[in-house]
Amino acid sequence: CYSFCTFPDLTGKLHIGGIRTAIYNYLYAKKHGGKFLLRIEDTDKKRYDPEAEKYIQDTLEWLGIEPDESPWIGGPHGPYRQSERDYSEDIQTLLDSGNAYYAFDTEQDLTDARSEDKWFSYSYKTRGNMKNSLSLPKEEVDKLLNDGVPYVVRFKMPEETNISFTDIIRGNVTQNTKQLDDKVIVKSNGIPTYHLANVCDDHNMEVTHVIRGEEWISSTPLHILLYDAFGWEKPTFAHLPLLLNPNGKGKLAKRMALKLGFPVLPMGGEGVDEKGNRVVYKGFKDEGYYPEALMNFLLMLGWSPKDTKELFTLKEMIDEFDLSSVHKAGAKFDIDKAKWYNAQYLQGKGDDDLKRHIDIGDTYKYDDERMRMIIDLAKKRSAFPQEMNAVTDIFFKPVVLNDAEKEKATDDFKSVFSDYINDDSLDWDDVGDIKQKIWDICKEKNIRMGKVMPALRQAICDGVSGPDLPTTMYILGKEESSNRIKNMIS
User: Fold this and answer.
1) Span 175-184, mean pLDDT?
2) DSSP secondary structure letters along 90-158
3) Which of 74, 315, 394, 430 counts the most CB atoms within 10 A of its CB?
4) What number of CA atoms fall less than 13 Å from residue 99's CA on the CB side?
5) 3-state secondary structure of 382
6) How far apart are CA 74 and CA 415, in angstroms?
7) 180 neighbors 226 (Cβ within 8 angstroms)
8) How far is CA 163 from the centre of its chain?
Protein backbone atom coordinates (compact mmCIF):
# COMPACT_ATOMS: atom_id res chain seq x y z
CA CYS A 1 0.00 0.00 0.00
CA TYR A 2 1.56 3.27 -1.14
CA SER A 3 -0.32 6.36 -0.14
CA PHE A 4 1.14 9.59 -1.37
CA CYS A 5 0.96 13.31 -1.02
CA THR A 6 1.91 15.67 -3.82
CA PHE A 7 2.31 19.40 -3.79
CA PRO A 8 1.38 20.72 -7.25
CA ASP A 9 1.12 24.38 -6.17
CA LEU A 10 4.61 25.57 -5.28
CA THR A 11 3.73 29.23 -5.74
CA GLY A 12 4.11 30.23 -2.11
CA LYS A 13 3.54 29.09 1.45
CA LEU A 14 1.59 25.89 1.97
CA HIS A 15 -2.09 26.35 2.80
CA ILE A 16 -3.32 24.50 5.88
CA GLY A 17 -5.67 22.43 3.67
CA GLY A 18 -2.62 20.86 2.04
CA ILE A 19 -1.31 19.92 5.46
CA ARG A 20 -4.58 18.18 6.34
CA THR A 21 -4.30 16.20 3.09
CA ALA A 22 -0.76 15.18 4.01
CA ILE A 23 -1.89 14.11 7.49
CA TYR A 24 -4.72 11.95 6.13
CA ASN A 25 -2.38 10.31 3.60
CA TYR A 26 0.20 9.64 6.27
CA LEU A 27 -2.29 8.17 8.76
CA TYR A 28 -3.93 5.95 6.14
CA ALA A 29 -0.61 4.58 4.87
CA LYS A 30 0.71 3.87 8.37
CA LYS A 31 -2.51 2.23 9.54
CA HIS A 32 -2.37 -0.25 6.65
CA GLY A 33 1.34 -0.95 6.96
CA GLY A 34 2.08 0.99 3.80
CA LYS A 35 4.42 3.77 2.82
CA PHE A 36 3.85 7.49 2.62
CA LEU A 37 5.43 9.02 -0.49
CA LEU A 38 5.92 12.71 -1.08
CA ARG A 39 6.39 14.10 -4.57
CA ILE A 40 7.05 17.66 -5.70
CA GLU A 41 5.06 18.53 -8.81
CA ASP A 42 7.00 21.50 -10.15
CA THR A 43 6.15 21.46 -13.84
CA ASP A 44 4.74 25.01 -13.79
CA LYS A 45 8.04 26.88 -13.82
CA LYS A 46 6.42 30.29 -14.30
CA ARG A 47 4.79 30.07 -10.88
CA TYR A 48 7.42 27.99 -9.09
CA ASP A 49 8.76 29.33 -5.80
CA PRO A 50 12.17 27.77 -4.99
CA GLU A 51 11.58 28.29 -1.25
CA ALA A 52 8.29 26.39 -1.23
CA GLU A 53 9.84 22.93 -1.08
CA LYS A 54 11.94 23.81 1.98
CA TYR A 55 8.82 25.23 3.59
CA ILE A 56 7.02 21.91 3.06
CA GLN A 57 9.94 19.97 4.52
CA ASP A 58 10.18 22.22 7.58
CA THR A 59 6.42 22.03 8.17
CA LEU A 60 6.30 18.24 8.07
CA GLU A 61 9.33 17.97 10.36
CA TRP A 62 7.66 20.33 12.84
CA LEU A 63 4.51 18.20 12.80
CA GLY A 64 6.50 14.99 13.24
CA ILE A 65 5.45 13.54 9.87
CA GLU A 66 8.32 11.85 8.10
CA PRO A 67 7.71 10.58 4.57
CA ASP A 68 9.08 7.15 3.74
CA GLU A 69 10.24 8.54 0.40
CA SER A 70 10.73 12.16 -0.64
CA PRO A 71 13.16 14.46 -2.46
CA TRP A 72 15.20 15.02 0.71
CA ILE A 73 15.13 11.39 1.86
CA GLY A 74 15.32 9.54 -1.44
CA GLY A 75 14.02 6.05 -2.10
CA PRO A 76 13.53 3.42 -4.79
CA HIS A 77 10.92 5.41 -6.75
CA GLY A 78 12.93 8.58 -7.36
CA PRO A 79 13.49 11.14 -8.57
CA TYR A 80 10.77 12.84 -6.53
CA ARG A 81 10.62 16.13 -8.42
CA GLN A 82 8.67 15.98 -11.66
CA SER A 83 11.11 18.39 -13.28
CA GLU A 84 13.75 15.66 -12.93
CA ARG A 85 11.66 12.83 -14.42
CA ASP A 86 11.47 11.72 -18.07
CA TYR A 87 8.04 11.32 -19.66
CA SER A 88 9.07 11.12 -23.33
CA GLU A 89 8.29 7.41 -23.75
CA ASP A 90 4.88 7.77 -22.14
CA ILE A 91 4.03 10.72 -24.38
CA GLN A 92 5.04 8.78 -27.48
CA THR A 93 2.97 5.79 -26.35
CA LEU A 94 -0.17 7.95 -26.25
CA LEU A 95 0.58 9.49 -29.66
CA ASP A 96 1.28 6.12 -31.30
CA SER A 97 -1.89 4.57 -29.87
CA GLY A 98 -4.06 7.46 -31.11
CA ASN A 99 -5.08 8.51 -27.61
CA ALA A 100 -3.29 11.83 -28.01
CA TYR A 101 -2.58 14.19 -30.89
CA TYR A 102 -0.51 17.22 -31.86
CA ALA A 103 -2.28 20.59 -31.84
CA PHE A 104 -0.60 23.48 -33.69
CA ASP A 105 -3.19 26.15 -32.91
CA THR A 106 -1.73 29.51 -31.95
CA GLU A 107 -3.03 31.67 -29.14
CA GLN A 108 -4.69 33.84 -31.78
CA ASP A 109 -6.41 30.79 -33.29
CA LEU A 110 -7.88 29.93 -29.91
CA THR A 111 -8.87 33.55 -29.25
CA ASP A 112 -10.67 33.70 -32.61
CA ALA A 113 -12.51 30.46 -31.86
CA ARG A 114 -13.68 31.82 -28.51
CA SER A 115 -14.79 35.09 -30.05
CA GLU A 116 -16.97 33.22 -32.53
CA ASP A 117 -18.42 30.95 -29.83
CA LYS A 118 -18.37 32.08 -26.20
CA TRP A 119 -19.02 28.45 -25.16
CA PHE A 120 -16.09 27.17 -27.22
CA SER A 121 -14.39 24.06 -25.90
CA TYR A 122 -11.59 22.17 -27.63
CA SER A 123 -13.37 18.81 -27.87
CA TYR A 124 -14.66 16.17 -30.24
CA LYS A 125 -17.20 18.73 -31.48
CA THR A 126 -14.62 21.30 -32.51
CA ARG A 127 -11.24 19.59 -32.97
CA GLY A 128 -12.02 18.79 -36.61
CA ASN A 129 -12.09 22.52 -37.36
CA MET A 130 -8.85 23.29 -35.58
CA LYS A 131 -5.19 22.93 -36.65
CA ASN A 132 -4.10 19.53 -35.34
CA SER A 133 -2.87 16.11 -36.42
CA LEU A 134 -6.46 14.81 -36.53
CA SER A 135 -7.67 17.44 -39.00
CA LEU A 136 -4.54 17.96 -41.11
CA PRO A 137 -3.02 15.59 -43.72
CA LYS A 138 -0.09 13.52 -42.41
CA GLU A 139 2.30 15.19 -44.84
CA GLU A 140 1.44 18.62 -43.47
CA VAL A 141 1.74 17.41 -39.89
CA ASP A 142 5.19 15.93 -40.61
CA LYS A 143 6.29 19.20 -42.22
CA LEU A 144 5.08 21.28 -39.27
CA LEU A 145 6.99 18.99 -36.90
CA ASN A 146 10.15 19.05 -39.03
CA ASP A 147 9.99 22.84 -39.31
CA GLY A 148 9.84 23.14 -35.51
CA VAL A 149 6.42 24.81 -35.45
CA PRO A 150 5.28 25.07 -31.81
CA TYR A 151 2.65 22.59 -30.70
CA VAL A 152 0.99 21.10 -27.66
CA VAL A 153 -0.15 17.52 -27.18
CA ARG A 154 -3.82 17.03 -26.32
CA PHE A 155 -5.59 13.94 -25.01
CA LYS A 156 -8.24 12.65 -27.39
CA MET A 157 -11.36 12.50 -25.26
CA PRO A 158 -13.85 9.78 -26.39
CA GLU A 159 -17.25 10.97 -27.54
CA GLU A 160 -20.14 10.93 -25.03
CA THR A 161 -18.85 8.12 -22.87
CA ASN A 162 -19.73 7.63 -19.22
CA ILE A 163 -16.66 7.40 -17.01
CA SER A 164 -17.33 5.93 -13.57
CA PHE A 165 -15.18 5.28 -10.54
CA THR A 166 -15.75 4.39 -6.90
CA ASP A 167 -14.56 6.95 -4.39
CA ILE A 168 -13.94 5.67 -0.84
CA ILE A 169 -15.61 8.77 0.59
CA ARG A 170 -18.23 9.66 -2.02
CA GLY A 171 -19.21 6.30 -3.45
CA ASN A 172 -19.92 5.93 -7.15
CA VAL A 173 -19.07 8.96 -9.28
CA THR A 174 -19.99 9.17 -12.97
CA GLN A 175 -19.25 11.87 -15.54
CA ASN A 176 -19.94 11.92 -19.27
CA THR A 177 -17.11 12.94 -21.58
CA LYS A 178 -19.35 15.37 -23.42
CA GLN A 179 -18.71 17.66 -20.47
CA LEU A 180 -14.93 17.35 -20.89
CA ASP A 181 -12.51 18.97 -23.31
CA ASP A 182 -9.38 17.60 -24.92
CA LYS A 183 -6.96 18.61 -22.18
CA VAL A 184 -3.43 19.69 -22.98
CA ILE A 185 -1.17 17.00 -21.54
CA VAL A 186 2.13 18.34 -22.92
CA LYS A 187 2.84 22.07 -23.08
CA SER A 188 4.57 23.82 -25.99
CA ASN A 189 7.85 23.75 -24.02
CA GLY A 190 7.72 19.94 -23.98
CA ILE A 191 6.90 19.72 -20.27
CA PRO A 192 3.92 17.55 -19.36
CA THR A 193 1.02 19.11 -17.50
CA TYR A 194 -0.05 17.99 -14.04
CA HIS A 195 -2.58 15.51 -15.43
CA LEU A 196 -0.17 13.40 -17.46
CA ALA A 197 2.78 13.62 -15.07
CA ASN A 198 0.53 12.78 -12.13
CA VAL A 199 -0.81 9.58 -13.70
CA CYS A 200 2.58 8.43 -14.98
CA ASP A 201 4.26 9.06 -11.65
CA ASP A 202 1.52 7.33 -9.64
CA HIS A 203 1.90 4.24 -11.80
CA ASN A 204 5.70 4.21 -11.82
CA MET A 205 5.86 4.85 -8.07
CA GLU A 206 3.42 1.99 -7.40
CA VAL A 207 0.87 4.27 -5.73
CA THR A 208 -2.18 2.30 -4.61
CA HIS A 209 -4.24 5.06 -2.94
CA VAL A 210 -4.69 8.66 -4.01
CA ILE A 211 -6.14 10.84 -1.24
CA ARG A 212 -6.63 14.44 -2.34
CA GLY A 213 -9.00 17.42 -2.18
CA GLU A 214 -12.45 17.36 -3.74
CA GLU A 215 -11.43 20.01 -6.29
CA TRP A 216 -9.73 17.15 -8.20
CA ILE A 217 -12.92 15.11 -8.66
CA SER A 218 -13.61 16.75 -12.01
CA SER A 219 -10.13 15.77 -13.23
CA THR A 220 -10.40 12.14 -12.17
CA PRO A 221 -12.28 10.94 -15.32
CA LEU A 222 -9.36 12.21 -17.43
CA HIS A 223 -6.91 10.44 -15.15
CA ILE A 224 -8.89 7.20 -15.42
CA LEU A 225 -8.90 7.47 -19.21
CA LEU A 226 -5.14 7.98 -19.15
CA TYR A 227 -4.72 4.84 -17.04
CA ASP A 228 -6.88 2.94 -19.52
CA ALA A 229 -4.93 4.33 -22.48
CA PHE A 230 -1.69 3.04 -20.99
CA GLY A 231 -3.27 -0.25 -19.91
CA TRP A 232 -2.33 0.37 -16.30
CA GLU A 233 -4.13 -0.63 -13.11
CA LYS A 234 -5.89 2.33 -11.50
CA PRO A 235 -5.32 3.34 -7.89
CA THR A 236 -8.12 3.76 -5.36
CA PHE A 237 -9.34 7.35 -5.06
CA ALA A 238 -10.59 9.29 -2.04
CA HIS A 239 -11.53 12.97 -2.35
CA LEU A 240 -11.53 14.96 0.86
CA PRO A 241 -14.09 17.66 1.74
CA LEU A 242 -13.15 21.30 1.47
CA LEU A 243 -12.06 23.40 4.41
CA LEU A 244 -14.54 26.28 4.57
CA ASN A 245 -14.20 29.86 5.80
CA PRO A 246 -15.25 30.42 9.44
CA ASN A 247 -18.66 31.66 8.27
CA GLY A 248 -19.15 28.44 6.31
CA LYS A 249 -19.21 30.27 2.99
CA GLY A 250 -16.64 29.33 0.40
CA LYS A 251 -13.30 27.56 0.46
CA LEU A 252 -10.96 28.66 3.24
CA ALA A 253 -9.01 31.57 1.79
CA LYS A 254 -5.82 33.35 2.79
CA ARG A 255 -7.54 36.69 2.27
CA MET A 256 -10.12 35.74 4.91
CA ALA A 257 -7.31 34.86 7.30
CA LEU A 258 -5.75 38.27 6.69
CA LYS A 259 -9.07 40.02 7.19
CA LEU A 260 -9.98 38.23 10.44
CA GLY A 261 -6.45 37.94 11.77
CA PHE A 262 -6.15 34.17 12.23
CA PRO A 263 -3.42 31.81 10.97
CA VAL A 264 -4.07 29.75 7.88
CA LEU A 265 -0.48 28.63 7.26
CA PRO A 266 1.54 26.21 9.40
CA MET A 267 4.38 28.74 9.62
CA GLY A 268 3.86 32.42 8.93
CA GLY A 269 5.86 34.95 7.00
CA GLU A 270 5.73 37.23 4.02
CA GLY A 271 3.73 36.33 0.97
CA VAL A 272 1.82 37.78 -1.97
CA ASP A 273 -1.95 38.22 -1.91
CA GLU A 274 -4.33 37.79 -4.85
CA LYS A 275 -3.63 41.34 -6.04
CA GLY A 276 0.11 40.92 -5.98
CA ASN A 277 0.64 42.92 -2.78
CA ARG A 278 3.26 41.89 -0.24
CA VAL A 279 1.54 40.77 2.96
CA VAL A 280 2.46 39.03 6.20
CA TYR A 281 0.55 35.87 7.03
CA LYS A 282 0.18 34.47 10.53
CA GLY A 283 1.37 30.91 11.11
CA PHE A 284 0.26 28.34 13.67
CA LYS A 285 3.81 27.68 14.85
CA ASP A 286 4.60 31.39 15.24
CA GLU A 287 1.35 31.98 17.14
CA GLY A 288 2.38 29.43 19.77
CA TYR A 289 0.41 26.36 18.67
CA TYR A 290 1.82 22.97 19.55
CA PRO A 291 2.26 20.63 16.56
CA GLU A 292 0.23 17.93 18.35
CA ALA A 293 -2.63 20.40 18.83
CA LEU A 294 -2.63 21.37 15.16
CA MET A 295 -2.55 17.69 14.15
CA ASN A 296 -5.59 16.97 16.35
CA PHE A 297 -7.44 20.03 15.10
CA LEU A 298 -6.90 19.17 11.43
CA LEU A 299 -7.68 15.50 12.02
CA MET A 300 -11.17 16.43 13.23
CA LEU A 301 -11.81 18.88 10.36
CA GLY A 302 -13.70 16.46 8.15
CA TRP A 303 -13.35 13.21 10.11
CA SER A 304 -15.22 11.77 13.09
CA PRO A 305 -14.12 9.00 15.44
CA LYS A 306 -16.51 6.28 16.48
CA ASP A 307 -16.96 7.88 19.92
CA THR A 308 -16.76 11.38 21.43
CA LYS A 309 -13.00 11.31 21.89
CA GLU A 310 -11.20 14.47 20.70
CA LEU A 311 -7.59 14.15 21.86
CA PHE A 312 -5.36 11.58 20.16
CA THR A 313 -1.72 10.64 20.30
CA LEU A 314 -0.09 10.01 16.92
CA LYS A 315 -0.33 6.27 17.50
CA GLU A 316 -4.03 6.58 18.32
CA MET A 317 -4.58 8.63 15.18
CA ILE A 318 -2.97 5.90 13.09
CA ASP A 319 -4.92 3.12 14.84
CA GLU A 320 -8.33 4.81 14.61
CA PHE A 321 -8.22 6.76 11.33
CA ASP A 322 -10.60 5.41 8.71
CA LEU A 323 -11.46 7.01 5.38
CA SER A 324 -15.01 5.68 5.64
CA SER A 325 -15.54 8.11 8.52
CA VAL A 326 -14.46 11.14 6.50
CA HIS A 327 -17.35 13.52 5.83
CA LYS A 328 -18.59 14.42 2.38
CA ALA A 329 -19.62 17.95 3.35
CA GLY A 330 -17.13 20.76 3.81
CA ALA A 331 -15.68 21.41 7.27
CA LYS A 332 -15.97 24.90 8.77
CA PHE A 333 -12.66 26.31 9.99
CA ASP A 334 -13.18 27.17 13.66
CA ILE A 335 -10.15 28.98 15.06
CA ASP A 336 -11.63 28.95 18.57
CA LYS A 337 -11.62 25.15 18.44
CA ALA A 338 -7.98 25.24 17.38
CA LYS A 339 -7.23 27.36 20.47
CA TRP A 340 -9.13 24.88 22.62
CA TYR A 341 -6.95 22.05 21.36
CA ASN A 342 -3.83 24.05 22.10
CA ALA A 343 -5.04 24.77 25.62
CA GLN A 344 -5.56 21.04 26.22
CA TYR A 345 -1.99 20.28 25.23
CA LEU A 346 -0.67 23.18 27.28
CA GLN A 347 -2.34 21.68 30.37
CA GLY A 348 -0.38 18.49 29.83
CA LYS A 349 3.03 20.17 29.65
CA GLY A 350 5.42 19.77 32.56
CA ASP A 351 6.43 22.63 34.85
CA ASP A 352 9.99 22.73 33.53
CA ASP A 353 8.74 23.03 29.97
CA LEU A 354 6.36 25.88 30.82
CA LYS A 355 8.72 27.66 33.20
CA ARG A 356 10.98 28.71 30.33
CA HIS A 357 8.12 30.80 28.90
CA ILE A 358 7.74 32.82 32.12
CA ASP A 359 9.49 36.13 32.82
CA ILE A 360 10.63 35.31 36.37
CA GLY A 361 13.14 38.07 37.01
CA ASP A 362 15.26 38.32 40.18
CA THR A 363 12.98 40.15 42.64
CA TYR A 364 10.63 37.45 43.90
CA LYS A 365 11.57 33.96 45.09
CA TYR A 366 9.19 31.04 45.71
CA ASP A 367 9.62 27.51 46.96
CA ASP A 368 8.84 24.52 44.70
CA GLU A 369 5.27 24.14 45.95
CA ARG A 370 4.35 27.76 45.28
CA MET A 371 6.10 27.73 41.90
CA ARG A 372 3.98 24.74 40.89
CA MET A 373 0.86 26.60 42.02
CA ILE A 374 1.84 29.69 39.99
CA ILE A 375 2.33 27.63 36.83
CA ASP A 376 -0.92 25.75 37.46
CA LEU A 377 -2.86 29.01 37.86
CA ALA A 378 -1.33 30.39 34.68
CA LYS A 379 -1.76 27.39 32.39
CA LYS A 380 -5.41 26.89 33.37
CA ARG A 381 -6.13 30.38 32.06
CA SER A 382 -4.03 30.23 28.91
CA ALA A 383 -4.27 28.71 25.46
CA PHE A 384 -0.69 29.59 24.54
CA PRO A 385 2.56 29.63 26.55
CA GLN A 386 3.08 33.33 25.91
CA GLU A 387 -0.30 34.10 27.49
CA MET A 388 0.84 32.72 30.83
CA ASN A 389 2.74 35.89 31.72
CA ALA A 390 -0.56 37.73 32.12
CA VAL A 391 -1.01 35.63 35.27
CA THR A 392 2.59 35.00 36.32
CA ASP A 393 3.38 38.72 36.25
CA ILE A 394 1.17 38.96 39.36
CA PHE A 395 3.83 37.02 41.23
CA PHE A 396 7.02 38.29 39.63
CA LYS A 397 6.35 41.99 39.07
CA PRO A 398 5.36 44.65 41.61
CA VAL A 399 1.90 46.20 41.43
CA VAL A 400 2.12 49.88 40.50
CA LEU A 401 -1.16 51.73 41.05
CA ASN A 402 -2.12 55.07 39.56
CA ASP A 403 -4.39 57.57 41.32
CA ALA A 404 -7.51 56.38 39.53
CA GLU A 405 -6.88 52.79 40.61
CA LYS A 406 -6.25 53.81 44.22
CA GLU A 407 -9.61 55.60 44.27
CA LYS A 408 -11.22 52.15 44.18
CA ALA A 409 -10.15 51.83 47.82
CA THR A 410 -13.40 52.90 49.44
CA ASP A 411 -13.79 53.63 53.13
CA ASP A 412 -15.31 50.17 53.53
CA PHE A 413 -12.25 48.60 51.89
CA LYS A 414 -9.87 50.55 54.12
CA SER A 415 -11.86 49.65 57.22
CA VAL A 416 -11.94 45.92 56.44
CA PHE A 417 -8.36 45.44 55.26
CA SER A 418 -6.69 47.70 57.79
CA ASP A 419 -8.00 45.27 60.40
CA TYR A 420 -7.23 42.31 58.15
CA ILE A 421 -3.50 42.88 57.76
CA ASN A 422 -3.14 43.63 61.49
CA ASP A 423 -4.96 40.49 62.62
CA ASP A 424 -2.32 38.31 64.28
CA SER A 425 -4.69 35.34 64.39
CA LEU A 426 -4.72 35.07 60.57
CA ASP A 427 -2.90 31.96 59.35
CA TRP A 428 -1.21 33.00 56.08
CA ASP A 429 -0.28 29.38 55.34
CA ASP A 430 -3.94 28.34 55.14
CA VAL A 431 -5.90 29.37 52.01
CA GLY A 432 -9.16 28.63 53.79
CA ASP A 433 -8.29 30.90 56.68
CA ILE A 434 -7.19 33.69 54.34
CA LYS A 435 -10.65 33.68 52.80
CA GLN A 436 -12.60 33.08 55.99
CA LYS A 437 -10.98 36.03 57.77
CA ILE A 438 -12.21 38.43 55.05
CA TRP A 439 -15.71 37.04 55.51
CA ASP A 440 -15.55 37.33 59.31
CA ILE A 441 -14.39 40.96 59.32
CA CYS A 442 -16.98 41.97 56.70
CA LYS A 443 -19.72 40.30 58.72
CA GLU A 444 -18.55 42.00 61.89
CA LYS A 445 -18.60 45.41 60.22
CA ASN A 446 -21.85 44.69 58.36
CA ILE A 447 -20.14 45.24 54.99
CA ARG A 448 -20.98 43.06 52.03
CA MET A 449 -17.93 41.10 50.95
CA GLY A 450 -18.69 41.75 47.27
CA LYS A 451 -18.24 45.51 47.80
CA VAL A 452 -14.59 45.24 48.82
CA MET A 453 -13.33 42.38 46.67
CA PRO A 454 -12.86 44.37 43.39
CA ALA A 455 -10.48 46.75 45.18
CA LEU A 456 -8.67 43.78 46.72
CA ARG A 457 -8.19 42.31 43.24
CA GLN A 458 -6.79 45.65 42.10
CA ALA A 459 -4.39 45.69 45.04
CA ILE A 460 -3.23 42.08 44.84
CA CYS A 461 -3.44 41.28 41.08
CA ASP A 462 -3.28 44.75 39.51
CA GLY A 463 -6.85 44.09 38.39
CA VAL A 464 -6.10 40.88 36.47
CA SER A 465 -9.25 38.78 36.47
CA GLY A 466 -9.34 35.05 36.99
CA PRO A 467 -6.88 33.82 39.62
CA ASP A 468 -8.45 32.97 42.96
CA LEU A 469 -7.55 35.77 45.38
CA PRO A 470 -7.04 33.72 48.59
CA THR A 471 -4.82 31.29 46.66
CA THR A 472 -2.91 34.20 45.14
CA MET A 473 -2.40 35.76 48.58
CA TYR A 474 -1.21 32.43 49.97
CA ILE A 475 1.41 32.17 47.20
CA LEU A 476 2.53 35.79 47.63
CA GLY A 477 2.80 35.28 51.39
CA LYS A 478 2.01 37.55 54.33
CA GLU A 479 4.62 40.22 53.72
CA GLU A 480 4.00 40.81 50.01
CA SER A 481 0.19 40.55 50.31
CA SER A 482 0.16 42.99 53.24
CA ASN A 483 2.42 45.46 51.41
CA ARG A 484 0.15 45.43 48.36
CA ILE A 485 -2.93 46.06 50.50
CA LYS A 486 -1.12 48.88 52.35
CA ASN A 487 -0.17 50.37 49.01
CA MET A 488 -3.85 50.41 48.06
CA ILE A 489 -4.93 51.95 51.35
CA SER A 490 -2.23 54.63 51.51
Assistant:
1) 96
2) HHHHHHHHTSEEEE---HHHHHHHHHH-TT---STTTGGGSSBTTTS-HHHHHHHHHTT---EEEE-PP
3) 394
4) 18
5) coil
6) 76
7) no
8) 33
